[in-house]
Design goal:
Elements (H helix, E strand, L loop, with lengths): L1 E8 L2 E9 L14 E9 L2 E9 L2 E6 L2
Antiparallel strand pairs: 1-2, 2-3, 3-4, 4-5
Length: 64
């Protein structure tokens, strides 16, 4: 798992994270993902949006 990008605008911090298996099974059960990407945005130290993409699936969570 590694941070691929980080940006900050005022109180908003945006992080892009990449997960890649490089050794061993390392999959995410029960989907057996060997890689996925995460995009998270924090506003005033609270998670505002979270997006995870992998294996043809995308999950988006948004704080209301």
């Amino acid at each position: 798992m590694t941070t691929t990008a980080k940006k900050q605008n005022d109180d908003t911090v945006i992080c892009d994270i990449s997960y890649r298996v490089v050794l061993g099974p390392g999959y995410v059960w029960p989907f057996y993902f060997k890689s996925f990407d995460v995009h998270a945005a924090y506003d005033a130290r609270k998670l505002a949006t979270f997006t995870m993409s992998g294996g043809g699936f995308t999950v988006r969570l948004t704080r209301q």
